[in-house]
Amino acid sequence: MLLPRILTALVGIPIVMLCIYIGGLPFFFMFFAVIIFSVMEFYTICKKYNPMNIIGIFIAAVFYISLYLNLYVQEVIILSIFLIFLITMLRNRINNVSCELAITCFGTFFLTWSLYHMVLIRDIANYGMQYIIFLFVNIWVLDTGAYVVGKKFGKHKLAKFISPKKTIEGAIAGVFTGIFTAIICREIFMQNIISIQETIIFAIVISIVGQFSDLAESLFKRDCNIKDSGNILPGHGGMLDRFDSYIFCAPIFYYLIIFIKG
Predict the structure, then answer these.
(1) How many Cβ atoms sit within 10 Å of the Cβ of residue 262?
(2) Distance in angstroms (rounded) separating the CA atoms of residues 199 and 256
């Protein structure tokens, strides 16, 4: 299990970093793939609720493109919801339709909208690359810190019904690891971008919200008795498993940057 995990990281990390460095269309297409696979996996996780897989994935793709181009976003949303309800009505059944509609719309719109903020962060004028690297590195390292400390010293469950292996000790370690990592990142490539106070604020928010986002995905997996969202990334599980920390973290970090830096 460890070897596939390492090999995936050795291949995946350079690709991610190259797309971050270039930005523009390569980063757009990278997250297009991330979002489409994440929506697919979310529907697979929640298959007992019969989401509209094909139409949901198609609409997610159209919605993502409309967000990127900033064209007809409201129109895409209303027409898509109309279409989803129309298809549901044409099926001539009412059993479980509330869950079906809710899961379809959540995957199509919320996951797409939230992860699209990674593109918005990368596109921040002048310093988008630094901010997105800052976010990626902090999430990667704090996850590792929380896992290692939680596994070795964790005794108090953080949310035992959602993610039994996560502990309060691990979560606290994740926050401190995030702060330490953020300060190092600032010293290396962000000294002229953010102050030490802003660095600590960003780190605390990323550490807490990132771990919360991880638990949010686990809610669905526990409900549906699923361990991993998929197996597209050997040793790591699914795409959604790798990017679940950004579901809430990406939009909150983006708007925090806008609020603090103007």
Answers:
(1) 5
(2) 12
